[in-house]
Each structure stands twice: as C-alpha cells, then as structure tokens.
Amino acid sequence: MLDRLLVGLGSKFKQQYIKWLKVPQGYLRVLQQLDYRDSFVAAQTILPNNQIMLISTEKCLTNVELVGCSPGRVEEINSLTQKLATKYYPKQLDQQIQIQGLLKIILQLFVQRQDSTQLLYPYAQILKPPMTPLNWSQETLQMAPPRIQSFIESQKNFIESVHQDLYQNNIYGIQDKEFHELFQIVRNNIICLNPEQPKHFDQQSLLVMCPLISLIEHSFDPNCYLDGYYLSFENMSYVEVSSNKQILPGEKITINYGNLPNIDLVLRHGFMVPSNPYNQLKIFLDFENEFEHAGKFLQLKQKLIKQSQISDIEYTQLYSNKINQQLLQYLRIYFLSEDDISSNPQIQTYKWEQFEDPISSDNETKVKQFMIKNLKVALQEYNTIQPKNAEQSQLQQLIADEIQILQNNLRFFQQ
C-alpha cells in the first residue's frame, strides 16, 4: 500500500523526498489502498472508523520537541516565544499557545532547511508558501475595498512586528523576506490535534507540522479526521488519519481545516470555498442621526445592554447564512419609545433575552429602516473588477463574498 502511494507522489516530488518518506521503516504506515492525483484518493472502499495513514511525529515539527536545537538554544527559544506570546495576547491564553507554538515551529523549520545533514531537511526543502493576499501586488491591493485593505495590512504589520522582535533578540538572524515566507509556510501546514474544535487551542494541544497532511483536501463535511495515536509497545507517537464515514473508490480523502470564513482560508492556505457558510463581515453602523432615540429611557436601555455580549455596536458582525441575533436585540432596545412602554409597561421588567422577539410593529420598522440605510451605504463601497491574474481573482471572490453577505442581510430586513 505504501509503495502504491509513493509511486503517485513521485510525479510531484523529488526522489530525495520520496526516499526520506520510506525510511526508517514504520515511520509512514499506509493502511488503506490510496492513489495520489493532485490529492489523496481512495483506491478501495474504506469503511467508517478505519485508520488510513499513520505518520510518525519523528518526521514532524512540533511545539513540544525543538528538533535540531541545542539545549541552551531550546531554553532561549522557549523563554523568548513565551514572552512574545504574552506581549501580543496578554489576556488570551489560547492565542498565546497558538502563536508560541507557531514561532517554535518557524524557528525549527529555518534550522532544518539550512543544513542537509538535518533530520527533516528533505521535508523542509519541499515546502513552499501558498499564494495569499499577503503577497498581492500594490496594484491589486489598491483595487480592494478599504476593509480588505486594512485587514491585509494589519496581518502584514503583525508578521513584521514578530520578525523585528525575534531579530532584535538575535534568534538566528532570519531576514525579513525569509521570515515572511516561513510564517506563511507554517501557518499553511500547521495542525492542532483537537479535531472536535478545529479553531480551539489549549495547554494540552499538540501543534504539528506533518508531511503529507497538507495534500489532503479541505471540506466542511469531511470524510476523515486527524488525531494523535500512540503505540505503547513501540514507544512511538503518530499523526493519525482515520475515516469517519464510508469512502468509495475514486473519492477524495478530506479533512476539515477549520470552520473558517474565506478571508481566513485564503490568508492561511491560499484557497477559498464557494458559498462558504462561515463567511462574515464587520461593518460600521452610523448612529449619528439616531441620538434622539438613545436618550429615551436611558437607564433602562443601559441596564439591558449591559446584559449583552456586545462591546462595540458601531462595528458589528454580519454573517452569510444567519442574522446577528444580538444585533437585532440591541437595536430593539435602542429604538424603544414611549409608545412601546405605554402599550406594554411590562417591558420595563424585561431581561435581555426577551428582546429576541419583536416589541412592536413601530419598533421593528425603525430597526428595519436603520439597517437598510446602513447596508445600502456599505454596498456603495464596492466596485466591480475584471481580474487579470490569479491574485485579482482571489480579490474578486472576497469582494463577491462581502457583497453576498450584505445582500443577504438587506433582503432579510427588507422583507
């Protein structure tokens, strides 16, 4: 089974890498018949709950064992990456763990790709960064709406800030261009062995960059999942690819890269999903001409809004496949009037949750008119582009996603 798969991989990768995958024996175990045709494809019927492939963590880069680093350097890297993670995300433990693990793997990858005697050198050599908006030309970036421009620039600035912190602390002296490349390679390939919650990281999580995994295609309804697997009699840990449903011959092997919107998928992995149900968009809501409503029953409104999870209503999140319920509740409270209270005095005893339902037809009309006005303003920011290359096609898709979100929400409030 292994030889069959390696024959397919040989059409894409150099023989040095194929040879490295094969040895030592047992580090790569293929347990079902697979072919490789730009992605992994089942060559036989694979039943649910079957192991498909095991890849030894000895062939991986992880956030636990720093491969190719001296003990002194390991201590230095652990200390510095922890300090930087706390600096960037002082109150977000999950983000601290993610960025610290990502930095550890970046530094290991830099070491591995410099020296052909390193254990993971063949793997490090075949890794290339995906085409993402971080590499767009200035011409393409200037064609983007302000929100997309701002988001991409903030990503670039963050990567540059991380690089400067590492460079000033004399960690390997990685140059700016190479660090940006390494950052994108690692973010594209890194996985977290928490398969039930792809976006969640905790102190027990193992961050791994594993050969072959990035060749498995993404799906929001995958037929496989990743997990950690330990063979106690061999004292060997593996990254495990297993089926969660029946896979027929010719079907692609798929995993879930995370329930992410297209802007995140394209920044991390260089691809997008048509009609992505997880797309979202943050827009500005203009309350400047609505202050007359805010002052009425101010104490009541403040008490109710404190029960919500909304911290900044002016910049609110919209979704592609659902309405922001918290936004609706907030606006129903904001537009409460004397007529609403006089016709239903019980409103003064309501809790936040009770505004999930309409208060009055007049109140709903005010909410509707406010949102329609703001959504139409937001739609005016977009211009149609005729893409001339691949990066402009990426931009065209992101623009189409945002327009679709605005139009879906506009239809809801118009109806």
Summarize the structure.
By secondary structure, the chain is of the alpha+beta class. The protein has helices spanning 2-9, 15-22, 71-88, 93-114, 121-126, 138-143, 146-168, 176-189, 262-269, 291-294, 298-305, 325-334, 338-343, 361-379, 390-414, and strands at 28-30, 34-36, 40-42, 51-56, 61-62, 190-192, 207-209, 217-218, 224-231, 236-243, 254-255, 280-284, 315-319. The strands form five sheets. A four-stranded antiparallel sheet has the order 1-4-10-9, with no helix packed on it. It has a three-stranded antiparallel sheet with strand order 5-7-6.
Describe the structure.
Helix 3 runs antiparallel to helix 4, helix 4 packs across helix 8 and helix 14 (361-379) packs antiparallel against helix 15 (390-414). The chain is of the alpha+beta class and 415 residues long. A hairpin with a 3-residue loop joins strand 2 (34-36) and strand 3 (40-42). The chain has helices at 2-9, 15-22, 71-88, 93-114, 121-126, 138-143, 146-168, 176-189, 262-269, 291-294, 298-305, 325-334, 338-343, 361-379, 390-414; strands at 28-30, 34-36, 40-42, 51-56, 61-62, 190-192, 207-209, 217-218, 224-231, 236-243, 254-255, 280-284, 315-319. The strands form 5 sheets. A 4-stranded antiparallel beta sheet has the order 1-4-10-9, with no helix packed on it. Strands 5-7-6 form a 3-stranded antiparallel beta sheet. The longest helix is centred in the last third of the chain and has 25 residues, at 390-414. It is 45% helix and 13% strand. The radius of gyration is 25 Å and the shape is elongated. The protein contains 15 helices and 13 strands.
